[in-house]
Design goal:
Layout (H helix, E strand, L loop, with lengths): L1 H21 L9 H16 L2 E18 L2 E16 L2 E16 L2 E7 L13 H9 L14 H11 L14 H11 L16 E2 L2 E2 L1 H4 L1 H10 L6 E4 L10 E5 L8 E8 L5 E5 L4 E5 L13 E7 L7
Antiparallel strand pairs: 1-2, 2-3, 3-4, 3-11, 5-6, 7-12, 8-9, 8-12, 9-10, 10-11
């Protein structure tokens, strides 16, 4: 019976609960990439002299299917970690959409469906973005807009685990979400209707830089008008409302984008993001299964009237 598979998944989640607390392997099946991500997370916590003081793991069933002697269960996993660092507490949250494969009452496979670093399917030749966004001649124009960082954070907190119906919903939604956050802060749009130029969203149409992580990264490096940013060398130089871009494999193809919403006890960013919906996640993403030792980051400080240079 399909209902029995729900109980199997429930027991499985309960058995894996301890993994999220101490990083040790559970008695049940768990993929190596998930285990390595959990272990990296706990090493990072130790390095930051932080600890998980309370952990809540919950789940819900999305869909069940039966194939011969196997059951396929798609389920949502809600992770909430109360983290203590420098005598201060903050809550890190993450929503994972996962798939469990069950046979003979046992989970024989389990993996994340929507994960960090998935390549955008509609991405044109990546080199074209570098060319277009860096071809603009002349000096950077004077920034004449106010960027409301508090409004950015408010938007990122409101929609981190939901989709604003005013915008199109994408399967790989990380950069679409970040663009919405930037617009909520008053960032100006330019380039319409050329999809390969500028940064804009209008009438259910949008630029590549609005939705594609790779395109937004190169837009920031080349923009001389409209929304502009300055690259900084270290994550701790960023402010709330600033942006981090990720190349998980270090191969020159930028995969993911996050927005800074707070700082931890050491002054390093905590970020919100979509696709694997996350809130107050440590910026380095070492707890992601997409992370590799070759990872590269770009740190962009958004310019406004208060920071024209």
């Amino acid at each position: 019976m399909l209902s029995s598979s729900i109980e199997v998944v429930k027991r499985y989640v309960e058995d894996c609960h301890q993994c999220f607390v101490d990083g040790e392997r559970a008695g049940s099946f768990i993929r190596e990439n998930d285990m390595f991500a959990l272990q990296r997370k706990h090493k990072n916590l130790q390095k930051r002299k932080a600890e998980i003081v309370k952990n809540i793991v919950d789940g819900y069933i999305v869909r069940e299917q039966k194939f011969y002697n196997r059951s396929i269960v798609d389920y949502g996993l809600t992770l909430q970690h109360v983290i203590k660092q420098c005598e201060k507490l903050y809550i890190e949250e993450q929503i994972q959409l996962r798939r469990a494969v069950i046979e003979d009452g046992e989970v024989i496979d389990d993996y994340q469906i929507h994960r960090d670093g998935v390549v955008d399917k509609d991405l044109p030749d990546p080199s074209s973005f570098r060319q277009v966004f860096n071809d603009r001649q002349g000096d950077r124009s004077r920034v004449d807009y106010n960027y409301d960082r508090l409004a950015v954070v408010r938007y990122a907190e409101r929609w981190w685990n939901d989709f604003n119906p005013e915008y199109k919903k994408f399967e790989n939604d990380c950069t679409n979400f970040i663009s919405q956050c930037l617009q909520a802060g008053g960032a100006p749009m330019i380039g319409h209707p050329d999809r390969a130029n500028g940064w804009w969203y209008r009438n259910k149409s949008w630029s590549y830089s609005w939705t594609v992580a790779h395109a937004l990264r190169w837009y920031f490096s080349g923009a001389k008008t409209g929304l502009q940013a300055r690259e900084v060398s270290s994550a701790d130089e960023l402010m709330r409302g600033d942006i981090i871009c990720y190349d998980f494999n270090g191969d020159g193809r930028w995969d993911h984008t996050t927005v800074v919403v707070a700082k931890d006890g050491d002054g390093f960013p905590l970020v919100n993001a979509h696709t694997a919906n996350s809130r107050m996640r440590y910026w380095a993403y070492e707890d992601s299964t997409a992370w590799t030792e070759n990872i590269k980051y770009k740190f962009f400080h958004i310019l406004d009237k208060q920071s024209n240079t």
